């Protein structure tokens, strides 16, 4: 028997609906935005693979709005879910991104049947989902482009907004341990950052190997786990390109909404398992 779940990531809500002190007005706009994402026949479970938006109170409205259509929602943390984008936010969260994420998790956990996964698994509708945000590890630049970690760190500091808006980066080794813990049990693995950059190299018209180093900050090297992925589905986001391909017996899927310029008309994707 087949089973289904729905997938989206990188919603970046505040790019689609401006934060508004008139909460009623904002809620209405969020409902309309959410309506525009819903497929013709939604599944019971919605997976959101990170990057909800920059403001927790808005994100909560969005999760509640999604619950008009879904029985359960699974969320993992994205890098933007750690951003402190204003002086007001820095003050509120005492210049510590983790405090914003702790608040977001508490808000989400207050909504019945919304589950934030951070090295945990949950079985819904007969499917075991395991998730954690994960983080990029510069491996693409080191392995594919022959750069040193130091060179990549310089580039990252100069070019990536993560450097500016995340106050204290998450510990990558902790994320790796969480990922390792969920992988065998899961039918569906959910991370924000993906662990396979092979498609970038195949689309050489878009990314020329060794020329564009930014994928170093878009993926981690998941190859250590590839022999444990057979028969599974791995949902990821972070990059705003859509992917759906099979490698090492694992189906990798990205259904990022992204910024308005990225995939303007795209909707939630239904995945058959
Ligand atoms: Fe991201």
Structure overview:
This protein has a single domain, classed as Metallo-dependent phosphatases (Purple Acid Phosphatase, chain A, domain 2, 4-Layer Sandwich). 32% of the residues lie in helices and 17% in strands. The protein is globular. A six-stranded mixed β-sheet has the order 5-6-7-8-10-9, covered by helices on one side. A five-stranded mixed β-sheet has the order 4-3-2-1-11. The longest helix has 15 residues, at 23-37. The chain starts with a strand and ends with a strand. The protein contains ten helices and eleven strands. Strand 7, helix 10 (198-202) and strand 8 (233-236) form a beta-alpha-beta unit. The model has no long low-confidence stretch (mean pLDDT 95). The relative contact order is 0.18. Helix 2 (23-37) packs across helix 3 and helix 3 (56-66) runs parallel beside helix 5. With 273 residues, the chain is α/β, with parallel strands linked by helices. Bound molecules: fe (ii) ion. Fe (ii) ion (FE2) is lined by residues 10, 51, 78-80, 192, 238.
């Amino acid at each position: 028997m087949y089973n289904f779940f729905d997938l989206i990531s990188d919603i970046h809500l505040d790019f689609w609906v401006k934060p508004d002190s008139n909460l009623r007005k904002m809620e209405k706009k969020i409902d309309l935005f959410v309506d525009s994402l819903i497929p013709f026949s939604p599944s019971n479970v919605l997976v959101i693979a990170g990057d909800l938006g920059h403001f927790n109170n808005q994100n909560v409205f969005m999760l509640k709005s999604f619950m008009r259509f879904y029985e359960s929602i699974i969320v993992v943390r994205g890098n933007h879910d750690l951003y402190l984008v204003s002086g007001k936010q820095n003050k509120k969260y005492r210049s510590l991104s983790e405090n914003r994420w702790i608040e977001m998790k508490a808000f989400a956990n207050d909504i019945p049947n919304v589950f934030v996964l951070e090295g945990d698994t949950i079985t819904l509708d007969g499917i075991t989902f395991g998730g954690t945000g994960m983080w990029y590890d510069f491996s693409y630049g080191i392995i594919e482009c022959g750069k040193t970690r130091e060179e990549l760190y310089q580039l990252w500091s100069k070019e990536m907004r993560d450097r500016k808006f995340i106050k204290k980066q998450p510990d990558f080794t902790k994320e790796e341990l969480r990922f390792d813990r969920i992988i065998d049990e899961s039918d569906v693995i959910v991370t924000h950052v993906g662990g396979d950059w092979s498609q970038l190299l195949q689309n050489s018209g878009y990314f020329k190997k060794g020329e564009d180093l930014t994928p170093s900050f878009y993926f981690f090297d998941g190859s250590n786990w590839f022999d444990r992925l057979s028969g599974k589905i791995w949902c990821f986001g972070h990059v705003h390109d859509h992917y759906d391909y099979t490698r090492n017996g694992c189906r990798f899927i990205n259904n990022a909404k992204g910024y308005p310029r990225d995939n303007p008309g795209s909707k939630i994707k239904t995945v058959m398992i």
